[in-house]
Amino acid sequence: MGERLAGKIAVVTGGASGLGEATVKRFAEEGARVVVADLQVERGQAVVASLGDVARFVRCDVTHEDDVEAAVRLAVDTWGRLDVMFNNAGILGAVGPIADTDSRAWLDTIDVLLNSVFYGCKHAARVMQPQGSGSIINTSSAAGVMGGLGPHAYTAAKTAVVGLTKSVASELGVHGVRCNAIAPGTIPTPLTAAAAAGGQAIGAATKDVIGTGGGTPADIANAALYLASDEGQFLNGHTLVVDGGRTINGGSRRFATQTPGMVGVPNPT
After folding, report:
1. Which residue segment(s) compose the domain that 85 sits in?
2. Core-most of 15, 141, 156, 252, by most CB within 10 Å?
3. Is the pLDDT of residue 194 over 90?
4. What pLDDT, in 10s, does the model give residues 162-191?
């Protein structure tokens, strides 16, 4: 057991599986008490049971503002404060060509990936601002900082999360409340496995493209731990890209494989 989050109270949406579950367990290892907010009741209850009295579960549909508010209220009612709000719940959402994307699927995707983050920031701010302290962490994506890495609605929402993070940070920073985002690359989770051949295939593909090895949920949990802890106290409005270099692929790397020389410089006459 560490103490990097000793005495801190956290809410993690989407905390029953994937990146959220890894983060819940990492936070608890470092001394935090955690509310696991998720639609997956059995999984969420199992996670909480494995952690004991330092965790609580609440069924939470993040597209319902009342549910998000209730998760925050549970933390405050149980432990008296809120120090970390990790707005992490997500789906892949609408897929397909832009010309054929279903409007209802688009709106549902935005609801889960963007509106839920707004609700989390809003209700965390109502507790943290009077406290004069707190860390809000939002899950964006590598697709939110580079085009072509995700479906259209997903990309739009995750890009908007980056903007919302900056906007909230600029307002709340003077009150001692930080707001940052994490932009994961391709990490093997139940969510990404549903969009590919499975976690192993995703990990292998990531390693082949980047050359640094595939990421794991622990990599994102460690990033969240840093942003949640006092070690990250000078970061505000920042999007921490945790992708093994995926978003730099296609930049200088492709030129490094060419024959050395100059390109685009005319020969002297």
Report:
1. 9-246
2. 15
3. no
4. 999 999 999 999 999 999 999 999 887 666
Active site residue 122: no
Q: What's the pLDDT score for residue 205?
A: 45
Assess if residue 105 is contained within a domain: yes
Query: What per-residue string of b and e applies to 45-73 under the rule 16 or more CB within 10 Å gives b?
Result: eebbeebeeebbbbebbbbebebbbbbbb
Catalytic residue status for 158: yes
Q: Examine the residue annotation and report whether 17 is marked as an active-site residue of this protein.
A: no
* Active-site residue identified among 135, 140, 141, 229: 141
Q: Which residues contact 1 (CB under 8 A, 6 or more apart)?
A: 29, 30, 31
**Ramachandran region, residue 93 (left: φ > 0; alpha: ψ -120 to 50; beta: rest):** left
Residue of 154, 166, 226, 252 with catalytic role: 154
Domain count of the chain?
1
Of the candidates 17, 116, 140, 158, the residue annotated as catalytic is: 158
pTM, to two decimals: 0.88
Query: Which DSSP category does 134 fall into?
Result: E
* Token pair of 2 as six digits: 């560490």
Amino acid letter, 48: V
Quote the distance between the C-alpha of residue 152 and its chain's center: 18
CB 4 within 8 A of CB 231: yes
Side-chain-side CA neighbours of 268 within 13 Å: the count stands at 0
Instruction: Please report whether residue 103 resides in a domain.
Output: yes
Q: Are strands 84-87 and 55-59 parallel, antiparallel or unpaired?
A: unpaired
pLDDT score for 246:
83
Contacting residues for 77 by C-beta, under 8 A, at least 6 apart = none
- Would residue 258 count as lying in a domain? no
Q: What is the CATH number of the domain that holds 94?
A: 3.40.50.720
Residue 260 lies in a domain: no
